[in-house]
Amino acid sequence: DAGVIQSPRHEVTEMGQEVTLRCKPISGHNSLFWYRQTMMRGLELLIYFNNNVPIDDSGMPEDRFSAKMPNASFSTLKIQPSEPRDSAVYFCASSLTALLNTEAFFGQGTRLTVV
Amino acid sequence: AQRVTQPEKLLSVFKGAPVELKCNYSYSGSPELFWYVQYSRQRLQLLLRHISRESIKGFTADLNKGETSFHLKKPFAQEEDSAMYYCALKDQGAQKLVFGQGTRLTINP
């Protein structure tokens, strides 16, 4: 397994444009997490899914952010419209939560720059 | 609510010196704690977990429930230890992983 795969690796977009980040979790994992990493706030949990169902989206900053998981092998995080303060590295992670003390496996991240 | 605090954003020590990265948590239940590391240009990866009581790359971390701490320690730092370190707590009820703000460790030659 290639691990958690995110695309694109880098995204530069203009303020006001729609941005879509993609994630393919590790096959067989039933939990998927979206995190945002910034220098000021570190790693923030935005939303997570269990068995494709959104469980907790309290970390989503505002209505401009939305996330979907249409099936067990794909998830998207969308920002519409994007703003410069959204610039950050966005990580996707997956885990198998059926087991105790399981670790989360992270993707390489998408570095988003909104100008 | 669960919370993880890493008081130091930056930590710089000389090679061969001891290292301690601090982590404190607040959680009402029995915590499940982890340390993750992110080396330059690499993805975030698990370093160690408290339940295993293991030593990885010379690092250890002991859960102190009285002080609600899970500090990461290494007796003799090496240059390759330079990285970003995150302490994390697993909320077992909600099944989510909550991270601290991270500490950037720099080992000077």
> What is the β-strand count of chain A?
11
Outline the biggest β-sheet of chain A. Answer: 7 strands, mixed
The SSE string of chain B, one letter per element, is: EEEEEEEEEEE
What general outline of chain B do the C-alpha atoms trace? globular
Helix count of chain A? 0
Distinct helical segment count of chain B: 0
Mean pLDDT of chain A: 92
Biggest interface: A-B, 25 and 21 residues
Oligomer: heterodimer
Looking at the structure, what is the overall shape of chain A? Answer: globular
Query: CA-to-CA gap between the ends of chain B?
Result: 41 Å
Structural class of chain A: mainly beta
Ends of chain A: how far apart?
Answer: 35 Å
Structural class of chain B: mainly beta
Order of helices and strands of chain A: EEEEEEEEEEE
Structural key phrases:
heterodimer, A: 115 residues, mainly beta, four-stranded antiparallel β-sheet, globular, B: 109 residues, six-stranded mixed β-sheet, 46% strand
SSE layout:
The complex is a heterodimer of chains A (115) and B (109).
Chain A: E1 5-7, E2 10-13, E3 19-24, E4 31-38, E5 42-50, E6 53-56, E7 65-71, E8 74-79, E9 88-95, E10 105-106, E11 110-114
Parallel strand pairs in A: 2-11
Antiparallel strand pairs in A: 1-3, 3-8, 4-5, 4-9, 5-6, 7-8, 9-10, 9-11
Chain B: E1 3-5, E2 10-14, E3 19-21, E4 24-26, E5 32-38, E6 45-49, E7 60-61, E8 72-74, E9 83-91, E10 96-99, E11 103-108
Parallel strand pairs in B: 2-11
Antiparallel strand pairs in B: 1-4, 3-8, 5-6, 5-9, 7-8, 9-10, 9-11
Short synopsis of the structure:
With 115 residues, chain A is mainly β. In chain A, 0% of the residues lie in helices and 54% in strands.
Notes on the structure:
The complex is a heterodimer of chains A (115) and B (109). With 115 residues, chain A is mainly beta. Chain A is built from no helices and eleven strands. Chain A has strands at 5-7, 10-13, 19-24, 31-38, 42-50, 53-56, 65-71, 74-79, 88-95, 105-106, 110-114. In chain A, a hairpin with a 2-residue loop joins strand 5 and strand 6 (53-56). Chain A is globular. The mean pLDDT of chain A is 92. The model of chain B has no long low-confidence stretch (mean pLDDT 91). Chain B has 109 residues and is mainly beta. Chain B is globular and about 45 Å long. Chain B is 0% helix and 46% strand. In chain B, strand 5 and strand 6 (45-49) form a beta hairpin. The A-B interface holds A 3, 31, 33, 35, 41-45, 48, 50, 55-56, 91, 93, 95, 97, 100-101, 103-104, 106-109 and B 6, 32, 34, 43-46, 49, 51-52, 86, 90, 94-102.
